[in-house]
Design brief:
Elements: H1 12-39, H2 42-68, H3 83-111, H4 120-141, H5 149-178, H6 182-210, H7 220-228, E1 233-243, E2 249-257, H8 259-264, H9 267-282, E3 286-293, H10 294-302
Parallel strand pairs: 2-3
Antiparallel strand pairs: 1-2
Length: about 300
């Protein structure tokens, strides 16, 4: 007795947005690499490296999204939606590694300020182009990232790029106005400091999904109370809530009903009420209920 309604959170729409974002990111990455070489800016080069990492992450996200869209089969009965979680895991690790590299290079530049001369004017122009491109990519992904953990990983990386571009712009203005090239190294450290907390948050969410914890914001007690409030229901036990990926919660429970409900053939109506309750009040579209007469609980406990 269960509901197999599709979640509706996977499809060509997300893949199209990821593909457009990939095109934008790749184009700006090339511009930033050329600009970094010509200007001698570490912050701009770090931002370009982040863009390169984002391009790779978006490719991973596209592959994961395509795999997740494959239908369920007898071997993988839930389908391939967990592929998005593994894609997000890779994205989070990439972000951590990138941040460590940026921090290392930034400290080296601070310790040896004469290592390279920075051309602030060119650095400023390229950073503005990057800022505008990242803003466009974020706008494209802003809606889909609320429903897909994998798209959220890509969204967070673009957000890191946006912040990085803003930091590079500030550093470029300082270099142009004062000639203090170390502002470039400080911007690099700022980029690393902004990326790390977001990467950790993404990895934390991935771990929560893989550990099959209840989705954030889901209150099992409240769900149990709703079930117990259904006429004819006398008890509920073996309640489990987890998620396949962001936006795809799964719920199972054993529901004890009055013996008269079973005898009168009202079990089907109660099942429909429970599934509607989970779908409308808690956004759980895949719910499974095992309806049991009161005497079955005693038998189950002995078993």
């Amino acid at each position: 007795m269960h509901d197999h309604a599709p979640t509706g959170i996977r499809g060509a729409g997300n893949r199209r947005l990821l593909a457009i974002s990939l095109a934008i990111t790749s184009t700006v990455m090339v511009v930033q690499i050329v600009g970094a070489v010509l200007s001698g800016s570490l912050a701009l080069f770090a931002d370009a490296t982040h863009m390169f990492t984002d391009a790779a992450a978006l490719v991973i996200a596209l592959i994961a999204s395509s795999v997740a869209a494959r239908p369920a089969n007898d071997r993988r009965t839930f389908g391939y939606q967990r592929a998005e979680v593994f894609g997000a895991l890779v994205n989070g690790i990439i972000l951590i590694l990138l941040s460590a590299w940026v921090a290392f290079e930034g400290v080296n530049r601070l310790l040896d300020p004469g290592e390279a001369e920075v051309q602030g004017g060119l650095m400023l122009v390229v950073a503005i182009v990057g800022l505008l491109a990242n803003a466009a990519a974020m706008w494209l992904l802003s809606s889909a990232q609320r429903r897909s953990l994998n798209v959220r990983g890509a969204y967070l990386e673009v957000l890191g790029d946006l912040i990085g571009s803003a930091a590079v712009i500030v550093a470029a203005i300082v270099v142009v106005m004062t000639g203090w090239d170390q502002a470039d190294a400080i911007a690099s450290l700022f980029i690393a400091a902004m990326i790390i907390p977001r990467a950790i948050g993404l990895l934390r969410e991935v771990v929560s999904v893989l550990a099959e914890s209840a989705p954030k914001g889901t209150h099992v007690k409240e769900i149990r109370d709703h079930i117990l409030g259904t006429p004819g229901v006398v008890d509920v036990h073996d309640v489990h809530v987890w998620q396949l990926t962001r936006g795809a919660p799964v719920f199972t429970a054993h529901v004890v009903v009055d013996d008269r409900v079973m005898r009168s053939g009202q079990a089907s109506g109660i099942l429909s009420q429970l599934q509607t309750c989970l779908s409308q009040h808690f956004d759980v579209e895949h719910s499974t209920f095992q309806l049991e007469p009161a005497g079955h609980v005693e038998h189950e406990s002995h078993a």
